């Protein structure tokens, strides 16, 4: 009876015993990078005793999306709850301050050595000055001895003086460097403290057991942008298309030797073809000018700084509503090629308030303001919420996490098509440090059959653009992105690969060709204005001259337009179009020309507009 009571007491005591606390390590094994975030997949080996154990993984990124964390167990144990909490007591994950302090300490030691060297040089000069009374007062020296002594002193003093000059130069440089380092260190130290995150996992086991944990979560302050190299040898050969990912991360944790997946889930003059929109003609008082309809801002650049004027490296710049974007460099500078539909840019960086601006020109400098509350929230989450309400997840197969997959040596990357997304898995492991630097990762290389055609809108641009048209481009799973253009092994600029297009044919602009000369001029003698009764009748006439100065034949497509009336009192009549293809709904006319080497052709466009004399219309634009 006594033994039974003691056993029952032991069981009750064990039931209410405090859980064992244990700190464990985990490694990042795989990262799926999205446009503006990344999913981190980690693995951890554990060994726990009987009863409940609280496992803590310290020093994780402060930018974890707490609602996204998932933990799976492999072994004879049960996961009770998963929490994430901010930790202000741990050292910052980023070692930038430690690195600056280390450089500063080394430079101070260098300065101390230079000061010691200066003292030695002073002592040497003092010794020479003390013994400059050659031979004493009573001992005469021969001329040869005197000359030798003078040569010796001259040589030594000159050497000391030269060393002193060099020492002062080095000392001044060292002092200036120390001053700069101290200013930078002070600037960095005064920034808000960024806490790390600790992942706390509560588990239970009936006995001593070993196993593994698979942890995954979403983290911000990371992303990738699609980039392309488009190479064309000549217009008789296929196009060489190289698909790349410009990946960056400033999460606070380095990604060391990890497998990467990229998901599509969420010079100065550009090579971007301008866009020609429908021209709605109405009365002048009702006319609204869309500046973006008339200005072809092909690219934008600038500097991103904080409110103190300090450059912000690694800031994110994206074209609103697209996958086009870039990040600022170490000096806060950025440069971005724009699609023709671009209207607004979004500037963001962790710890700062995001800003959105309309694209106002090719130079846009932006100041971001610090957001002190962004990182000051402690979070708790898990399977459904707080401890006690989380479901019990038990896995009994200790070999479930072992993989027998052999790395592929045939393909550089593997494309995985899910139900709604496409992922590109890179077979080669990469290391990406948490410093915001951009790293280009090769994804795919395609040799694509293309039809080459020249394209021009002389109303907007006098230059002709070489366009490569790709058929069945959907099978390549491309995203809208910037592309570097190479023609005949020469870099010719940048353009936008419009992979978001719904067209069956994907057109890639290969830049401008100055060998095709195009002039569009207004014919004044044919542009008239007459009052007939209660209506004005105005006529506009234009002549488009095209000459092929290339040594080969070309196909050239030219676009122009006449206005379309949206008011009953205004009528538009197209008089001349040189047999062009006319779209009466949009008012756009296109001519498909075949020009031999050295050939010149002239196109004519003329239209007539009738409107009430009490109103005005704007026809010259």
From TrEMBL:
**Which ranges form a coiled coil?**
97-191
Where is each DUF4140 domain found?
A: 31-128
Keyword line: Coiled coil
Pfam families assigned to the protein according to its UniProt record, in alphabetical order = CarbopepD_reg_2 (PF13715), DUF4139 (PF13598), DUF4140 (PF13600)
**Which top-rank group of organisms is this from?**
Bacteria
- Domain DUF4139: where? 213-613
Q: Which InterPro entries match?
A: CarboxyPept-like_regulatory, CHP02231, DUF4139, DUF4140
Q: Which SUPFAM superfamilies match?
A: Carboxypeptidase regulatory domain-like (SSF49464)
Would the keyword Ribonucleoprotein turn up in this protein's UniProt record? Answer: no
Segments passing through the bilayer: none
Q: Report what the protein is called.
A: Mucoidy inhibitor MuiA family protein
Organism of derivation: Belliella calami
């Amino acid at each position: 009876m006594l033994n039974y009571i003691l056993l029952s007491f032991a069981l009750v005591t064990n039931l209410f015993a405090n859980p064992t606390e244990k700190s464990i390590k985990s490694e990042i094994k795989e990262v799926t990078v999205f446009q503006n975030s990344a999913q981190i997949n980690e693995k951890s080996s554990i060994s726990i005793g009987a009863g409940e154990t609280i496992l803590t993984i310290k020093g994780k990124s402060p930018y974890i999306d707490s609602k996204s964390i998932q933990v799976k167990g492999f072994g004879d144990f049960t996961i009770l709850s998963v929490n994430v909490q901010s930790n202000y007591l741990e050292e910052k994950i980023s070692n930038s301050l430690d690195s600056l302090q280390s450089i500063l300490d080394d430079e101070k030691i260098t300065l101390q050595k230079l000061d010691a060297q200066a003292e030695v040089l002073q002592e040497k000069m003092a010794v020479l000055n003390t013994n400059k009374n050659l031979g004493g007062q009573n001992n005469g020296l021969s001329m040869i001895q005197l000359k030798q002594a003078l040569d010796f002193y001259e040589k030594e003093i000159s050497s000391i003086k030269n060393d002193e000059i060099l020492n002062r130069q080095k000392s001044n440089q060292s002092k200036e460097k120390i001053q700069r380092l101290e200013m930078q260190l002070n600037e960095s130290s005064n920034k808000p403290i960024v806490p790390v995150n600790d992942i706390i996992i509560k588990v239970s086991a009936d006995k001593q057991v070993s196993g593994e944990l698979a942890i995954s979560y979403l983290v911000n302050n990371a992303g990738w942008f699609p980039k392309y190299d488009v190479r064309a040898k000549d217009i008789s050969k296929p196009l060489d298309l190289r698909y790349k990912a410009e990946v960056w991360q400033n999460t606070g944790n380095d990604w060391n030797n990890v497998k990467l997946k990229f998901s599509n889930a969420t010079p100065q003059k550009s090579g971007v073809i301008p866009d020609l929109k429908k021209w709605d003609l109405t009365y002048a008082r009702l006319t609204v000018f869309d500046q973006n309809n008339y200005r072809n801002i092909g690219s934008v650049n600038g500097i991103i700084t904080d409110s103190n004027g300090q450059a912000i490296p690694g800031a994110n710049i994206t074209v609103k509503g697209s996958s086009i974007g870039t990040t600022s460099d170490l000096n806060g500078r950025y440069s971005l090629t724009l699609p023709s539909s671009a209207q607004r840019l979004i500037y963001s960086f962790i710890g700062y308030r995001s800003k959105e601006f309309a694209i106002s020109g090719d130079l846009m400098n932006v100041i971001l303001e610090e957001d002190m509350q962004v990182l000051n929230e402690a979070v708790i989450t898990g399977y459904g919420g707080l401890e006690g309400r989380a479901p019990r997840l038990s896995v009994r197969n200790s070999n479930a996490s072992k993989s027998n997959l052999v790395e592929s040596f045939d393909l550089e990357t593997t494309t995985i098509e899910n139900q709604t997304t496409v992922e590109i898995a890179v077979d080669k492991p990469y290391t990406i440090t948490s410093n915001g630097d951009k790293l280009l990762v090769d994804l795919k290389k395609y040799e694509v059959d293309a039809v080459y055609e020249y394209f021009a809108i002389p109303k907007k641009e006098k230059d002709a653009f070489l366009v490569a048209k790709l058929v069945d481009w959907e099978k390549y799973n491309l995203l809208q992105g910037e592309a570097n253009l190479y023609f005949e092994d020469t870099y010719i600029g940048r353009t936008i690969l419009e992979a978001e297009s719904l067209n069956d044919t994907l057109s890639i602009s290969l830049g401008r060709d100055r060998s095709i000369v195009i002039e569009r001029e207004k014919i004044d003698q044919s542009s008239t204005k007459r009052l007939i009764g209660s209506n004005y009748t105005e006529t506009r006439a234009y002549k488009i001259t095209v000459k092929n100065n290339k040594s080969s034949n070309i196909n050239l497509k030219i676009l122009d337009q006449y206005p379309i009336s949206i008011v009953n009192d205004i009528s538009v009549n197209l008089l001349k179009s040189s047999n062009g293809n006319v779209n009466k709904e949009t008012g756009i006319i296109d001519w498909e020309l075949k020009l031999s080497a050295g050939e010149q052709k002239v196109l004519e466009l003329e239209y007539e507009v009738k409107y009430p004399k009490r109103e005005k219309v704007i026809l010259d634009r």
